[in-house]
Design a protein that fits this description.
The protein has 17 helices and 2 strands. Helix 8 runs antiparallel to helix 10 and helix 12 packs antiparallel against helix 14. The chain is mainly alpha-helical. The termini are far apart. Helices cover about 70% and strands about 0% of the residues. Strand 1 and strand 2 form a beta hairpin. It is globular. It has one domain: Cytochrome C Oxidase, Chain A (Up-down Bundle). The structure holds heme-as. The site of heme-as has 32 residues, from helix 7, helix 9, helix 10, helix 12 and helix 14.
Length: about 575
């Protein structure tokens, strides 16, 4: 079903230009590049999800791992494969497709950069994955020192980062080319968003690149004999919080540009969407210390500054919520919805392209509230290092983002492979979304509740706190295992559907992109001036990080940063 014949019947209100762009098809060579990224992502998803299932079963006390495999080893595999590898490959596949769809086919050079980046990322993934499997890198996905991994693991991760920079360049160059060819015009929204996400990613990964190349690799090779725990953690979280927005923004890309077209509506405002993305560039990086609120070594004043900045990064999500509500209501009323909520019923509930991301959006309401709680200094003391945090990120990345990615895959894979999204795929996709939502409600809900009672995260000991409380813990672990098993079934079903996408009848499935609502204000040109944003971003990073890092260095016992600096 295409969006010009949505579940609500034919859409007659689309403009001629819209009908024309609905027919645009990505060039097969760009499609191949995007597809190889998706294939690696889906393989990582399968392996990472299997590790997740095993881990939740171990915690429930009903299962023991064979062959000396450790709990923390599979926890590392689960985190690295899902949080770092699945996401990065999926996002790059989606972004390549998005730029090619909106700016036009990539040049050979741009595509070459995409392939070079892909191979480097793949080699890096194999290196890091092999070390985890060999139990040489059981350091969890945050690889905090003093846990130490084999140098091959860190080098593999560094290669993934460098590969992503090279791949991102190809996408950005295509956007620059479009700008040159269309002087004075506003660039296509989706490609602008891709450039924002790549800029955010580049600036954020500088932190983790310095952490691995300057500290962890030399330490692991024995070139330096120690590293500063506070410094490496700070560098990690400089990267780590922006990482979560690097995951979130592609979901927002789908929400802003694709979903309005799928429901047969229009985008509420192009300018508002761009401002939201720019705000993410500015505020997603100088906030990493909110992951370190309970740590010594960082002065309370700087923690306060970063908490305030964290509250700024919530604003673009509010803008997004407002914009989406407006889009849904406008379309629902256009279809005849009456009264306060009559428009809600008119939305295309049988269309998986809408339903899966919609459930993702709904999950982000409690997920976002949880984030605000985490960021509130005093409340962070209650939840930090408890399994509440695990519940939080299973609602955000593993529901909001992943359900949007699932929903996008159902039309994007057929688009790239020259096939059709069939009725069966719609039905299975909706079933998959329900399984996911119920599994996550059980698993993440339990994690939130027992987290408030102090159940620790990242531990396979579920009997903390004496015999009485141990019973409650164990009951909750079993609930998590039930939820986790449903999620695993959800992943298997998703992969079965993807298999069906590859074998569906030959045809044309559109890559839906909405046009802007008539009457929306024209986007001012300064919004696209990345130089302004780069300067403000640099200033914010310097304000938020210079003194905390100088403090850490000054307070380190001589030589504890590994290098004798002064
Ligand atoms: Fe978070 C920890 C704060 C968002 C992921 N977060 C984590 C960790 C991960 C993660 C992975 O301040 C654990 C890291 C680790 O291993 O230690 N988080 C926030 C805040 C936000 C936030 C303030 N997080 C995310 C997103 C993630 C993510 C997004 C992944 C994609 N987080 C924290 C903090 C910690 C933390 C602390 C550290 C905790 C600790 O102590 O360790 C905000 O960005 C949230 C803002 C969001 C909203 C919601 C807007 C709602 C929208 C949906 C609208 C719905 C519609 C549907 C339109 C305000 C946009 C219509 C519905 C109808 C019913 C019609």
């Amino acid at each position: 079903m295409s969006s010009s014949e949505s579940i609500n019947g034919p859409i007659n209100n689309a403009s001629v230009a819209q009908k024309k762009t609905d027919q645009v098809k990505i060039h097969p060579r760009d499609a191949l590049l995007a597809l190889v990224h998706f294939l690696v992502a889906f393989l990582a998803l399968l392996l990472g999800a299997t590790a997740g299932l095993l881990q939740t079963l171990v915690r429930s006390g009903t299962f023991q791992l064979p062959a000396n495999i450790g709990y923390y080893q599979i926890l590392t595999l689960h985190g690295v494969l899902l949080a770092l590898i699945f996401t990065t490959f999926f996002i790059f596949g989606f972004q390549i497709a998005g730029v090619s769809r909106t700016c036009g086919t990539l040049s050979d050079k741009q595509r070459g950069l995409g392939w070079a980046g892909f191979y480097l990322m793949l080699i890096g993934t194999i290196m890091a994955g092999a070390m985890i499997l060999l139990n040489e890198a059981t350091v969890l996905y945050t690889f905090y020192a003093p846990l130490k991994a084999h140098w091959v693991f860190y080098t593999g991760l560094a290669l993934v980062v460098v590969g992503s920079w090279i791949g991102a360049l190809g996408q950005v160059f295509r956007w620059i080319q479009w700008r040159k060819e269309h002087k004075g015009e506003t660039t296509p929204l989706l490609s602008f968003m891709v450039v924002c996400n790549n800029m955010l990613w580049f600036v954020a990964t500088l932190g983790v690149a310095i952490e691995t190349v300057v500290f962890l690799i030399p330490w692991s090779l024995g070139i330096i004999d120690r590293v500063d725990v506070a410094l490496t953690r700070t560098l990690f979280w400089y990267f780590g919080h922006a990482l979560v927005y690097f995951w979130l923004l592609p979901a927002y890309m789908v929400w802003y540009t694709v979903v309005p077209r799928v429901i047969g509506g229009r985008m509420f405002s192009d300018g508002l969407a761009r401002i939201a993305f720019v705000l993410f560039i500015l505020y997603s990086i100088p906030v990493g210390v909110h992951h370190q609120l309970m740590e010594p070594g960082i002065n309370g004043f700087w923690k306060f500054v970063q908490v305030v900045l964290t509250f700024f990064v919530i604003i673009p999500s509010f803008l997004t919520a407002f914009s989406l509500f407006a889009t849904f209501e406008l379309r629902g009323r256009e279809l005849g919805g009456k009264g306060l909520l009559g428009w809600f019923k008119k939305l295309p509930w049988g269309d998986v392209r809408f339903f899966a991301p919609f459930i993702g959006m709904v999950s982000f309401i409690p997920g976002g509230i949880g984030g605000v709680i985490n960021a509130s200094y005093q409340m962070n003391a209650v939840i930090h290092n408890t399994i509440w945090v695990t519940g939080h990120f299973h609602l955000t990345i593993a529901t909001t983002v992943i359900l949007t990615f699932f929903g996008a895959s159902y039309w994007l894979i057929p688009h790239l492979t020259g096939r059709r999204l069939t009725k069966q795929i719609h039905q299975l996709g909706i079933m998959q979304t329900w399984i996911w939502a119920i599994g996550m409600l059980i698993m993440s809900g339990t994690m939130h509740i027992i987290g408030l009672f102090g159940s620790p995260r990242r531990s396979n000991f579920s009997e903390y706190g004496g015999a009485e409380i141990a019973q409650t813990w164990i009951a909750s672990e079993i609930a998590q295992a039930v939820g986790g098993s449903l999620l695993f079934i959800g992943i298997l079903l998703f992969l079965i559907i993807i298999g069906k996408c590859f074998t569906a009848p030959i045809g044309f499935e559109e890559f839906p992109i909405a046009e802007v609502a008539p009457g929306a204000q024209k986007t001012p040109a300064w919004v696209e001036n990345f130089k302004i944003w780069a300067v403000i971003l640099a200033a914010l990073i310097l304000i938020a990080y210079t003194i905390p890092i100088i403090d850490i260095l000054n307070n380190s016992p001589l030589g504890s940063v590994g290098y004798r600096m002064w």
